[in-house]
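Service request form, structural biology core

Requester: graduate student, group of Dr. S.
Request type: structure prediction, single chain
Budget code: on file
Notes: please return the result as C-alpha cells.

Sequence provided:
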Amino acid sequence: MKKTLVALAAALALASTGVMANDENTGGSGAGTAASGVATGVATGVAAAVVVAVAAGIVSNSDSVTLPVTPPPPPVETCEGDDPLVGGACEGTTTTVTVTGTGTSTTTVTVPVTFTYAPTVN
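Core staff response, request fulfilled:
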C-alpha cells in the first residue's frame, strides 16, 4: 500500500511539472494567458490530489494496534522471621523475664512485649 501511494504521488508530481513546462512553451499573449489559467487550475488540482493521496496513505498506515500492557507486580512486603504483617506494619513480640529476690524467696515475672516496625519491600 505504501509503495502504491508513493508511486501515485510521484506520478502526480511529474504530471504537474509537465503541465507547467507546456505552459511556458505556448505562444501569443492571449494563448499564454488562457493556457496559464488552465495550467494553474490543473496544477492546483494535482497538488490537491497529492495531498489527498498522502493523507489517505497516512490514515491507512496508522494501524491502531494496541499492545497489551502488563502492569508490574505489586511490591511484596515481608517481615522478619514469623512476625505477622498487620495493617501495613510488622508486629513483633518478645518476652521479658524479670527475676526479683528478697532473702530466700524469688519472684519471676514474664511479660510479653509487642512492638511494630516497617516491613521490608522486595
